[in-house]
Amino acid sequence: AGAEELDFVGPWEVLAAWAEGWPDDDVTAFTVSPEAGPIRAAKGLTVTADYSWTDAPPFDVLVYPGGRGMRSHIDNASYLDWVKGLAAGDVLMTSVCTGSLVYANAGLLDNGPATTHWGSLDRLAALGSGIEVRADDRFVDRGKVITAAGVSAGIDMALHLVARLHSPERAREVRRYIQYDPQPPV
Question: CB of 139 within 8 A of CB of 158?
């Protein structure tokens, strides 16, 4: 509860558009939460996760959102154990905004580069050991873990995922399909 809406909906839109527009690529996008039932996001949007932690099918990529409500996850042993368990397997761990703080406290970002929302860069550095904070990067891909800066950077990171997992051409096709133009209007 309390995730920043665009932190999860932006990447979900990219991945769901890829799944819908190119079904032969065998991609499925779904949401998961600790328990079944409605979840109220940071600005009031209510969503219902497709699966709980216990009934989710195996997945290859996790997008962990940030937001005010996610701050309680940073020191929560259940969340930390869950992400550590996924990271120990073959799951590509991605985060948007302050979702990276959970990864940092779980030790997933130690001794390497990472980013987060500009307002939490100092906290990111303090939560782990040897984290090289990249304040100006929209996202940082360090192989098994990808962190994205605040909110809209998650869309850029998700398009990077499409390029990484399929091809740059497919990522451009998905970007055009969702009519995303990364040039800010103001």
Answer: no
Query: DSSP 3-state assignment of 114?
Result: strand
For the record, the structure tokens of 7 come out as 């932190």
Q: Name the stretches of the chain with pLDDT < 70.
A: none
Out of 14, 97, 102, 178, the active site residue is 97
Q: Is the dihedral of CA 43, 48, 54, 56 positive or negative?
A: negative
Give residue 180's pLDDT: 95
The answer to whether 97 is a known catalytic residue is: yes
- The kind and range of the H/E element at 99 are helix 99-105
Degrees to nearest 5, angle at CA 30 with 80 and 134 = 50
Q: Amino acid identity of 68?
A: R
Q: Give residue 94's identity as a one-letter amino acid code.
A: T
User: Do the beta carbons of residue 119 and residue 34 sit within 8 Å?
Assistant: no
**Taking the alpha carbons of 5, 63, 140, 110 in that order, is the dihedral positive or negative?**
positive
* pLDDT tens digits, one per residue of 69-90: 899 999 999 999 999 999 999 9
CA 143/CA 162 separation, integer angstroms: 14
**CA–CA separation, 125 vs 122, rounded Å?**
5
Determine the Cα angle at 9 with ends 145 and 85, to 5°.
35
